[in-house]
Amino acid sequence: MLDLLGDILCLDSNQITMTLEEVSGCSTTDRKMETVRQALEELLVAAQRKNSLTVGVYESAKLMNVDPDNVVLCILATDEEDENDVALQIHFTLIQAFCCDFDINILRVSGMKRLAQVLGESLTDSNANESKDLHCILVTNPHADHLKLNEVGSYCKESRCNNQWVPYLALQER
Asked: What angle in degrees, to the nearest 10, is found between the helix axes of 20-49 and 146-161?
């Protein structure tokens, strides 16, 4: 009987038809994404405490040029207003290519405000000028909180197996 119920679930109020796998898959995916979000935030805090973060597009490019073997994760962060920044997108393309050449996990994230909160940074300084460039962040210590790094790395690997070469994660403001 469960098989019959599992085949199709009809919701009369909206006339939406979904399979049981789709219904349960949504909540599973949401939980997985929340777990990865939390792991990423905890990884960033732990790596920052251990001075294992490199922050900024140019700083990251310099480090990858000198010591790519020490980089274990590259985070490329944008919000909607950054999508039309051609120079930034070119930098991202070059950084992504470099990361692929050296088998460095890449993760694109949105939610710059939340990212700044996690890192204890401000997106603008007191003079209303742009402060620290949070568009590219490298985790550089291969031993940085390995459990959280494994969680994020597994998500990146899973995404690549599903032909999403640069996985995406939306950070949620709290």
From this structure: 140
The three-class DSSP label of residue 88 is helix
Residue 110: count other Cβ atoms within 10 Å of its Cβ: 17
User: In the structure encoding, which two tokens stand for residue 134, read together?
Assistant: 């949070």
CA distances from 139 to 8, 48, 84, 161 (A): 45, 9, 26, 22
For 172, which DSSP code? P
* Contact indicator for 114, 174 with CB cutoff of 8 Å: yes
Q: Which amino acid is at 2?
A: L
Please state the pTM of the whole predicted model: 0.78
CA 111/CA 115 separation, integer angstroms? 6
Q: Residue 94 — very low, low, confident or very high, per pLDDT cuts 50/70/90?
A: very high
- 112 contacts 123 by C-beta, under 8 angstroms: yes
The angle formed by the CA atoms of residues 60, 68 and 122, to the nearest 5 degrees, is 20
Residues 115 and 41: beta-carbon distance below 8 Å:
no
